[in-house]
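3.2 Worked example (two chains)
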Amino acid sequence: MIDPVHSLAFSIQANPGVYALILGSGVSRPAKIPTGWEITLDLVRKLAVLHGETNDLDPEGWYRGKYDEEANYSIILDALTKTPSERQQLLRPYIEPNDQEREDGEKQPTLAHHAIAALAAKGFIRVIITTNFDRLMERALEEAGIVPKILSSPDQVQGALPLIHTECCVLKVHGDYLDTRIRNTPDELDEYPDEFNQFLDRVFDEFGLIVCGWSAEWDSALRQAIYRASSRRFTTYWAVRGEPSDEAQRLINHRSAQALHIEDADTFFQTIHQYVESIEEYSKPHPLSTDAAVASLKRYISDPRYRIQLSDLVDKTVERVVESTSGDSFLVQGGPTPTSESVTERVRSYEAASSTLLAMATVGGYWAEEEHHHVWRRALERLGSNTSSSGNVLWLDLQRYPATLLLYALGLGAVEANRLQFLGLMLAITLGREYQEDLVAAQMLPPFCWSAHGGGGQRMQILEGMAKHYAPLNDWMQETLRPYTESIISADKRYTLVFDKLEILMALSCAYQESRISSQASYWVPLGAFVYRGENRIRIPKEIKESLAEMGNESPFVMSKIFGETAEHCAQALKALEQYISELGLYFR
């Protein structure tokens, strides 16, 4: 059977603003706020002390015998204080925390108050009726960014805007603690002003109800208002600890309410808030389209408050890539024989599965701040580790393709925005291990790093239309990724320059990482299409040299640690790359 609390959460999420709350003293009790009657009795005890008498056993009887009338909050308060300021000072210790109480967390909005305020902030709760005269609910709402309309007297109710135009209102049927018209005696609770009754009649007719912390034993006027309402537009949920009182049970039966047995108000409202939030998050339009995903990403990266949503968005998008590329269409053992047609089809299938992530990554790389780095690190680690170790060599190579695409997409955005430190971090992410040495992204993901040196890059000449290309997959990816960068790189010529710069930095990074493993290894780097674009092959190294010469160790190329930790080391690395390319120059003329 479905838990009625689950049903309530679904109802709140599906019907924002149609549930009103009735909150009793049970909601404020954990904050150690006394009720109006408890304040009245405490004032009577203090009066008895002034008379040299003790009334520990029966303060109500002592007052009746002494003054020949029933103890009444308003009468006693009026007699003890003559001005509003005096009244406020007298009542303040009962309602507002002193330093010790504040340190102990007393007389502060409870977890229940905060959960209700969070629901109100998102429009799920708009009307709160409370028998409490403290201001904990108002404070919690204000902390959540809501300035509620407080109604605690007939004139306030009469002058209030219609509920449809009110973001959130709080009706304090017993009044406010700073107003001597507070209601707490049986006679006062027996009848409400006409303005209150009219307001309650409308709410109980038009809204569903969630009742918590209210025993219904003493408030006959509130009970009568519920009995008057004949409408059952929405369900009434009545939260109780243990068994409901007789009065509450009669109201539950009259309203055909659903009784909810709860541990306490804090746990109840926290649970409701969490459930509603979960349903709301799940019910958001699924980011099926690239545009929707990128729009969400931009919104999340613009404000640190959305760091959790950003992380969830990227993580879920990566997992969809993993799930989409783990089926029978991507087998590495027992799959189709690699042909131009089957390889091209698989490459395009990888690209289709990764399309949303790639659109996000170009923007993510362009705007990557330090607080975003771990999100993309985790994404690259997840895709880079999603590989098998045995099977057809070409199919095994292609398992790296989604991670390679992601690295390139992030890199294109980072290079265009000159976020070289971010690029350096991505290139240095450890993705594997070989011969007891860690291998990083710069050593594993460039196409020429697939399989043995050069083998992975050249083997992809099998792709449709790539048979005569020296760097077939590099050229293929350049065209594949171009549409994803249109929002950050407008001109085709500029895009080619950024692409070549990225691949040169990847090559330098790979050589740098290889040299850290073994200084005796022969020089090799994963080349790219830049080797046969003479203009960029000259322009980009020249730009790097100028930066190193002018800025030294403060150059962004040094600060990024992509290919060295000093300007001198970086200059040497660049010289080694140029020499290596020149030795291969005959092949590209």
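3.2.1 Second chain
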Amino acid sequence: MKEVFRNIINILIFRNLSINQKILFFSLGSLFWLLLISSISLLTIFKMSLMSEQMVEEIVPQEKATNSVIRKLRGANISVHKIIIYNDQDSINANYSRAKERLQDCKNFLNALLNGGTVVDYSIITDLLIDRFSVYPLQNVNSRKLVEDVISRIEHLDNILDEIKSERLNKNNLNSLLEKVSYYDVTTSESIKILNQNLLNILNEWRIFEEKMYEKFNFSVLIISSVFLITALLSGAFGFLISQSLRKSVTEITDQFKKLHSGDIDLTKKLTVYSKDELGQLTTEFNKFMDALSGLSSFKKIIEEDDTIDDVYMRLARIFSEELKFDSFIIYEVSNSTNTMKVIFPKEAEGLQLYCSRDILLDCQLCRVNRTAHLISSAAYPNICKYFIEDKDVIHFCLPIITEGNVGGVVQFICAKREECDLEEFEKKIKKAMRYIQEAQPVIEAKRLMKALKESSFKDALTGLYNRRFLEESFENIVAGILRRGTILGLLMCDIDFFKQINDVYGHDTGDVVLKEIGNNIKNSVRASDLVIRFGGEEFLVLLIDSKEGNSIEIAEKIRKRIEDIKIKITGGFIQKTISIGVSEFPVDTQNFWEAIKFADVALYKAKEMGRNRVIRFTQDMWTEENY
């Protein structure tokens, strides 16, 4: 029941209509009630005017006809008296005719009152038209009886008039004539009284009509006032409800924006959608915005807690594939120091055909995004990048990842062929991807900086090789891996023969050149998974990861021979140096990592004792101490 009532309210206040439609329907509703009030008012005025007009057309002619009869009866009475007064026959006949005509007019007028008709009143003296009007029949029964009574009396007067004339011409007994005249006067007077009564009846009907009109007027005013009150209440109620529904949404959105500005906001809290109008759509879009903001905020918080840059890249890749639903994309990392690029995602992409020429991996300046540091799209310009080697009709977007003011990475999104790509939808996803990239940029920059700082603390500044601190931090993981996999760790302790003579003869600068060159050649003589460490001074330690027993001697000999053969360019010419190497194996020679290093160092000193430029494998007879 409550739900039904809510639905009815929603319909009445146009909740699910647009704001324009709300205003339109509210205006139409107000106009309807205004027209209703106006119509009632106009109908009432028209009806009252019509009734008044009808009443005037009915009462006034009846009143005029009655007054005319009274006037003519009195005129006839005067003429009768003149018949008595005048002695000459012409005067008697003339007054008789006037009285006769007036009595006839009275009968005609009274018949018009009974049956309806037109009253035409001429002057008996001048024979000119005095008045002409239509008369409606009397409806009042009592009035009709009074008129009928007067008609019979006038007919009686007409007979008396004939007798008076006859006796006057014959000069009969004067007393008898006077009696007839007296009787005529009495009858005339009674007729006039009856007509006056009829006038009172007519006036009474007018009064009754006025009372009815007053009642109708009051009733109409009541109806109009009631409709006006209802209109005001409905307009006020609907206006209040509509304004409340609008105000509530606006207030909530405003409050959320204030909280967003102050930073005191719960990004997971959703606003209630109260309607389907523009404010409802605004609320829905605001909720989507908050979801996106919440997602971006959560994303940034998560990647800030990730260990490495690779973790950040992988998380970006999951966002692109799982949330944004990109089917095909590649993430490159740019190394400005080496002027190269490498594929970060997908990992297997290095073994597959990329969308771009692999030349960009060797020279990152060939990449248009890396040069321009802004988005590159083939949507508008199909041949925008000459290193894009796929079908030129395939649409691609390349976005830069900016770190430290330079391009630190590139994300390439592939849509499809131009006729198959939903470009509008794809560009929407690109914009969302850009927001995630923007959130990730400062984190990637910070982690790259931390990685650089960490690497700088673990690497020798002169040779670029790992230093002794790196070994101290990493040996436990190295040892654990060797033991877990059941393999061997070969340890080669290398020392440059007669290095002090170089510093003494050529100077320390030349000594540094020799150290760097020999360090690079040692590194290039082993696998990428092996570790080369500047152990101190002119000593280098090589860790051969997952080696085979006895294989360390072969690698050491390879290094020795390579160093013996190289010519190091120095100021004024070239120099050649040799190297002595001591070899031990973990855990073959010992279960202690640092003891294994000591054993390699012992073997190194044995090589120097035996004449230098040689490789010596540690044996137990070389170690005579109880503790290393």
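3.3 Remarks
The chain is about 60% helix and 15% strand.
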